[in-house]
């Protein structure tokens, strides 16, 4: 048979590319990745199932706010640093003025990233999707006249929205950089046409 004469050979170092891709997409911090999603998803699940499990609004509210607070702390102080190399905080100087500081990990000397693509996807997917879900819950609570739940939902929007805003500012840079990036992009699009 002619199938015995066929040999698998790597074409243009394809095997090296596959091994490099698998290393890039490997999750380097599985515990951080788990907790990045655990607190966020748990708060949403508790919100959705709370009325089915118990009739105590206070117990549900406290549980949800504790989960949201744990999520805020974990994302701001741990998972952002480990998974994507970004962090932000507020600093008060000697004059009493508040300054927001946004940092991004510098690229290594070889020019390669120290974060994996899989962790980055997990981080940004969780960071963007969950606040959108809380906004949907806010409209739902508002239109269904569940005013007592509106306070809980607003806490979800505020805590997760603050992390989203902080990390977007870390990723993109200051407002001046954002404006110049938009201007440059629109200028390039205009010149192409």
Shape, please? globular
Largest beta-sheet characterization = 2 strands, antiparallel
H/E series: HHHEEHHH
Low-confidence stretches are 1-23
What portion of the residues fall into strands of 2 or more residues? 5-15%
Count of discrete domains: 1
Structural class computed from helices and strand pairing: mainly alpha
The overall average pLDDT, rounded, is 81
Radius of gyration: 23 Å
Oligomer: single chain
Organism: Phoenicopterus ruber ruber
Membrane topology: Multi-pass membrane protein
Keywords: Membrane, Transmembrane, Transmembrane helix
Protein name: Golgi apparatus membrane protein TVP23 homolog
List keywords for this structure.
single chain; 193 residues; mainly alpha; two-stranded antiparallel ribbon; 2 strands; 70% helix; 7% strand; disordered N terminus; membrane; transmembrane
List the helices and strands and how they pair.
Layout (H helix, E strand, L loop, with lengths): L13 H12 L4 H24 L3 H28 L1 E7 L5 E7 L12 H27 L3 H26 L2 H18 L1
Antiparallel strand pairs: 1-2
Helix pairs in contact: 2-3, 2-4, 3-5, 4-5
């Amino acid at each position: 048979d002619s199938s015995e004469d066929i040999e698998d050979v790597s074409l243009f170092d394809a095997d090296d590319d596959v091994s490099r891709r698998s290393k890039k997409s490997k999750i380097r911090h599985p515990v951080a990745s788990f907790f990045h999603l655990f607190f966020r998803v748990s708060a949403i699940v508790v919100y959705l199932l709370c009325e089915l499990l118990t009739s105590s609004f206070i117990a549900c509210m406290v549980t949800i706010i504790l989960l949201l607070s744990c999520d805020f702390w974990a994302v701001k102080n741990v998972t952002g640093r480990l998974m994507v190399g970004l962090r932000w905080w507020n600093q008060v100087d000697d004059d009493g003025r508040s300054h927001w500081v946004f940092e991004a990990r510098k690229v290594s000397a070889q020019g390669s990233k120290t974060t994996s693509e899989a962790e980055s996807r997990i981080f940004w997917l969780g960071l963007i999707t969950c606040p959108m879900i809380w906004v949907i819950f806010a409209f739902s609570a508002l239109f269904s006249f569940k005013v007592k739940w509106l306070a809980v939902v607003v806490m979800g929007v505020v805590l997760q929205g603050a992390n989203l805003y902080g990390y977007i500012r870390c990723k993109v840079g200051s407002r001046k950089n954002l404006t110049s990036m938009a201007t440059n992009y629109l200028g390039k699009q205009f010149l192409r046409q």
